[in-house]
Amino acid sequence: MNREYHNWFSPHLQREMELLVFGHAGARVLVFPARMGRFFDYENWGLVRALQASLCEGLLQLYCVDSIDTESLYCSWRHPHDRLVRYLQYEGYLLHEVLPFMNHKNPNPFLIAHGCSLGAYYAANITLRHPQHFGKLVALSGRYDLTSHYGHYPPLFDDYYDENVYFNTPCHFLPQLECPNLLSRMRNLQITLVVGAEDPMLPSNRQLSEALHQKGIPHQMHIWAGEAHRAREWRKMVPLYL
Question: Considering Cα of 229, then 232, then 233, then 236, what sign does the dihedral take?
Fold first, then answer.
């Protein structure tokens, strides 16, 4: 199985960024790490191995990107406004550096956004904000409202709220969205949400699912037994839903 390491200095982030590529052809998958995770976690947790057949057959090609959570959403010493500004710089890195890199390496037009835990938020947020780039979303154990309290997961922005919070909270902006062009593109997406029945994030998944339903956006939501918020469950999920 093809495995490649790449790094470059990002103009958008003004720092070195790293990623791993797995597979040689097929649908391109933009893979986000979990909360404060790294680009090598997906491999270390056995998720690449769980997809080995699809990768070797040229059905999928994974691009596992790094996170900057400790500089953005989980940078507790920064004001929430500044955390979101840094997050938007990260989005710029993805849209204007990583996606062109993927296009250059692999001409397959079908792009999947995928992640687990906070990575599912990243995948859902970028897909719903920029649906013109994507064909599919596979979000496992995700949280789609970072302003709300779920179990032992506190809100991230200390009651701060502005338009950047709004436009990066799928459970907030989607119910109010009226743009026909964006909604049309979203209705062409293949969207799969997966969450455990005992996961504190289940209400967030239900809220996003209801918002998608109200906007006529087809999707599937699968509820697994237990919390199902660990790599051992994700290893079982990815061959089923990717």
Answer: positive
Domain tally, the chain: 1
Q: Rounded to two decimals, what is the model's pTM?
A: 0.97
pLDDT digits (tens, 9 = 90+) for 183-236: 999 999 999 999 999 999 999 999 999 999 999 999 999 999 999 999 999 999
Nearest-5° Cα angle at 241, 236 to 242: 105
Q: What is the DSSP string of 159-180?
A: T---HHHHHT-HHHHHHH---H
Sheet holding 111-116, edge to edge: 3-10, 15-22, 60-65, 27-32, 111-116, 136-140, 190-196, 220-224
* CATH code for position 118: 3.40.50.1820
Dump pLDDT digits (tens) for 82-106: 999 999 999 999 999 999 999 999 9
Pairwise CA distance, residues 202 & 101, whole Å: 35
User: In which residue are the tokens 């013109």 written?
Assistant: 132
Q: Which domain holds residue 21?
A: 3-241
Picking from 135, 139, 144, 219, the residue whose alpha carbon sits closest to that of residue 185 is 135
Mean pLDDT confidence for 153-182? 96
Confirm if 73 and 80 have CB atoms less than 8 A apart.
Answer: no
Q: Coil, strand or helix: which one is 86?
A: helix
